Amino acid sequence: MRIFVTGATGFIGSRVVTDLIGAGHQVIGAARSDEGADRLRAAGAEVHIGTLEEPAGLAAGAEQADGVIHTAFDHDFSNFLANCEKDRRVIAALGDVLKGSDRPLLITSGVGMGIAAPGELAREDVFNTEHPNPRIASELAGAALLDQGLNVAVVRLPQVHDTERQGLITYSVMLAREKGVSAYVGEGRTRWSAAPVADVARLYRLALEKAQPGARYHAVAEEGVSAREIAEILGRGLGIPVVSLPKEEAMAHFGWMGMFADLDLPASSAWTREALGWAPTGPSLAADLEGMFGLNG
C-alpha cells in the first residue's frame, strides 16, 4: 500500500515510517522543514510538506495515498485545548478527501477515552463521550467521519517510551530537575499505562493493514505503572528526594502538568492483542527510565 503518514518525523511517526517501509509499504511522509524532509528521504520515504496549521495542505497528501496514518499532534500542553481543536480540524480535512472511498484513516487518541468508571481499566469497547480530557475532540471527529461512511479507526496511546522519551514523563523529568524533588500526589497510587515506541509503531501498521472501520486499538504493553514507582525511579536517577504532595498543591508544583499528575489512566489491550495478533516485546517503562539514567547497567 501507499501510505500517507502525518507527524512522520516525530517520536512515534518516524518509527511508524520505518516499520511500514520494512513491511514493504510505500510511504509519503509529512514534514514541516527541509531538515525533516531530508530525514524522510534518507529513511526511504517520499516527502509531502505540510503542517497542522494548514489542514488543507495535509489533506493534499492524503489524496495521493491508499491509506492514512495520522500521528501528528502539537505537544505544547500549555495550549492543550486549542491544540486538540486543531487536531479535530485536521482529522475533518483528511476525511474530506477520503470520502466516497474505502481508504482507511487511522487517527490517534488517548487511552483515557476508554475508561467507563474511575478505577477501571480502559477498554477498547468503551468510548466515554463525556470524558473531560480535551483530546476527546480527536475521537469525536473520527466518530463523525465514521457516521458519514468513512473507514476510520483509532489508536489510543498510553505513555510511549524508549530511553530518550517517555510521553508525559519526559516533562516530569524536566520538572524534577528544575524543582530539585521528584514528586507524586497523595499516596502515588494513580497509574499510567505504557508501551515501548517500537511496539506502538508496529501496532499502527497492523491496524492499518486490518482496516476495520470503527475499531479502537489500545497500544498498551503495561496496564498500569504507579505514579510513586515512576517518581522513585526519577529520584534515584537524578539523585534528588522523592516527596508526596497533597492534591491541593499539585497545580502549584506541576504547572500545566497538574491536570495530568493525579489522573488514573490504566488500560487493557486484551482485545487489541487478539484482534491484531499484536504481542509487545520491548522493555518496560521502568527499564527504559532506568536505562536513561544508567541505573540498570
Can you tell me about this structure?
With 297 residues, the chain is an alpha/beta fold. It is 41% helix and 19% strand. It has 12 helices and 12 strands. The chain has helices at 13-22, 34-43, 55-62, 80-98, 136-147, 169-179, 197-210, 227-238, 250-254, 258-261, 270-276, 285-293; strands at residues 2-6, 26-31, 46-49, 67-70, 105-110, 152-157, 159-161, 182-185, 191-196, 216-218, 222-226, 242-245. α1 links the parallel β1 and β2 (26-31).
List the helices and strands and how they pair.
Layout: E1 2-6, H1 13-22, E2 26-31, H2 34-43, E3 46-49, H3 55-62, E4 67-70, H4 80-98, E5 105-110, H5 136-147, E6 152-157, E7 159-161, H6 169-179, E8 182-185, E9 191-196, H7 197-210, E10 216-218, E11 222-226, H8 227-238, E12 242-245, H9 250-254, H10 258-261, H11 270-276, H12 285-293
Parallel strand pairs: 1-2, 1-4, 2-3, 4-5, 5-6, 6-10, 7-9, 8-12
Antiparallel strand pairs: 9-11
Helix pairs in contact: 1-7, 3-4, 4-5, 6-8, 8-12
Order of helices and strands: EHEHEHEHEHEEHEEHEEHEHHHH
Order of strands, main sheet, comes to: 3-2-1-4-5-6-10
- The whole-angstrom Rg is 19 Å
Helix content: 40-55%
Estimated structural class: alpha/beta
Largest sheet: 7 strands, parallel
- How much β-strand is present in the residues? 15-25%
Low-pLDDT stretches: none
| Count of alpha and pi helical runs | 12
Shape: globular
Q: Can you give the mean pLDDT? A: 95
SS elements, strand count: 12
Cα-to-Cα separation, first versus last residue: 41 Å
